[in-house]
Amino acid sequence: MSEQLDSFVEQMLIPVFGIDTELMWNQFFENDVVLSQQQLNSAKALYKELKEKVLNGLNSDRCGKWDSINAGSIFDQTKVDEPDEFDCLLVPRIPSGYIKAEYESAPPGFCYIRVLEENCFTEFCERGYLSSKKWRDHFTSRLKEIVTGINNWECLPSYDGSAAVPVSCRTRSTNDIDVDLVPALHVLSWPSRARSRDEIDKIIPSDGLQGHHVVAKAYKENGIITL
């Protein structure tokens, strides 16, 4: 019995002696993992066109100018295999003092956005606070309208309460690309618990201490914007 087991185990073993494993790894990485410069250039060109047209559409509306923030592994230079998905935060330029984040009465990880000054976002308010549902409904509809007029791009289904509008690019010349368009707000204040941490300045870059972004995500209560 022991001899039969030894023979069986020997058949399962994969000999590696005499094989250049470093060469095998490098070949695997170059052929099956890393993106070619052509793939990166094609993906970024298509995404640039999408972003510019989305921003132009939002900028033509009544809520003023918008900026964008790219996020995802393709921009961190860590994306592998396919340039298939990344995020684009869309942030309106709201003057300082127009909105304020309130954390104390909100669930962990969430906050309320109080609108302090009359502005174009007042129509999305309920009792002085920004309604995440009204915000989502408006900008989901508006972004879908804009994307519909952009060649090669289409909107994808999203789950109820999602903060993102997923869109996709399908062309013969490049791999499929999926992008989440995420309307967001920039707020200056941090939750008191985060501000009281002694190590926060070591964890968060100095520019991050100037504020952060929040997005509208569904919660069991209406009117909450998530961190």
What are the defining features of this structure?
six-stranded mixed β-sheet; extended; alpha+beta; 227 residues; Beta Polymerase, domain 2; 11 strands
What multimeric state do the chains show? single chain
Tally of helical runs: 7
- Quick one: how many beta strands? 11
Indicate the proportion of strand residues: 15-25%
CATH uppermost class: Alpha Beta
**End-to-end distance, in Å?**
62 Å
CA radius of gyration: 24 Å
Helix content: 25-40%
What is the CATH architecture annotation? Answer: 2-Layer Sandwich
SSE string, helix = H, strand = E? HHHEHEEEEEHEEEHHEE
Give the helices and strands, then pairings.
Layout lengths: L1 H11 L8 H13 L3 H23 L6 E6 L1 H4 L8 E8 L6 E4 L7 E6 L9 E2 L2 E2 L1 H17 L4 E3 L9 E5 L7 E11 L4 H4 L4 H4 L8 E4 L9 E2 L1
Parallel strand pairs: 2-9
Antiparallel strand pairs: 1-2, 3-4, 4-11, 5-6, 7-8, 8-9, 9-10
Helix pairs in contact: 3-5
Précis, in short:
With 227 residues, this protein is an alpha+beta fold.
